[in-house]
Amino acid sequence: MIGLMVMGVFLAYILLSLFIVWMAYKVFKTKKALFIALLIMILIPTWDVIIGKPIYNYLCKNKAGVHIYKTVDNVEGFYIGERSKRYEPYEPYEGYKYVDYKEKESGKYYRSYWVDNNTSKNCVPIGKAKYGDYAKAFHHGKCIVKKEISERDVSRWDISWNKKEYTKIFPLNLKIVKVGLIKDSITNETLSEQFTIDWNGGWVYGILSSIERGHPENIFCGIDYSNVFELEYKTLKSKKEGEK
After folding, report:
1. Residue 194 CA, distance from chain mean position
2. Looking at the structure, do residues 106 and 224 belong to the same domain, yes or no?
3. Co-location of 40 and 66 in the same domain
4. What is residue 226's predicted lDDT score, i.e. its pLDDT?
5. What is the pLDDT of residue 163?
6. Residues of the chain whose pLDDT is less than 70?
7. pLDDT, tens digit (0-9, with 9 covering 90-100), for 128-140
8. Residues 91, 151: one domain?
9. Among residues 243, 93, 56, which one has the least CA distance to residue 182?
């Protein structure tokens, strides 16, 4: 039904355009007037694509993705910010020994890491997750230890930044979105950033994409979902990686 309505709107616009072009030629009686009217009617639904597509492609090539300004070798762990105890345990990223975080409920700082002894009093219990990956590891004798640490012992490598900042290019509805940031909390130096380019593809594309999904779908670049931790691994090289 929505598809038929959209097709009806497009057909009506084509007929309206032909009528306006014909009227322009009839009133001014010149080919120049005809071409100007035709150009205007073509640009009304397509101007944002004609301008936006080259800008989007340029930004995807030159701005999107991971930008590393400084790397660090032999990193064993890092700080991931405030986390709720409801979602424990917090597993260290593959290749690293631990993650540090601030517990939302208590305001205390903790370090999580794997041990080969699930009888430790500091082991995070499996709770209700009896069939998950952690429960499987627990039953094989391993566990993740949650150890309280002081704020001064928290890793200086901070990837806790999780707010989105963006620059909007008006009136194209195109945004440069900062989706990741790693910094040195001691020097406050930014080590790396990650950006995505988010665009609605033009209003005609928005209408067409909404036919199938019921809502417009934006297009974007800058994140490779086959390696979502690219920013972390390329900036904070694990001890094993740093020894290569």
Report:
1. 8
2. no
3. no
4. 72
5. 78
6. 1-10, 128-130, 203, 205-216, 240-244
7. 666 788 999 998 9
8. yes
9. 93
Domain ranges, residue 18: 2-45
Determine the pLDDT at residue 191: 98
- Residue 66 shares a structural domain with residue 172: yes
pLDDT at 242: 42
As a three-state string, the secondary structure of the chain is CHHHHHHHHHHHHHHHHHHHHHHHHHHHCCHHHHHHHHHHHHHHHHHHHHHHHHHHHHHHHHCCEEEECCCEEEECEEEEEEECHHHCCCCCCCCCCEEEEEECCCCCEEEEEEECCCCCCCECCCCCCCCCHHHHHHHCCCEEEEEEECHHHCCCEECCCCCCEEEEECCCCEEEEEEEEEEECCCCEEEEEEEEEEECCCHHHHHHHHHHHCCCCCEEECCCCCCCCHHHHHHEEEHHHHCC
Angle 214-220-225 (CA atoms, 0-180°, nearest 5)?
100
**Number of domains, the chain:** 3
166 shares its domain with 200: yes
Looking at residue 151, what is its pLDDT? Answer: 96
The pLDDT assigned to 8 comes to 67
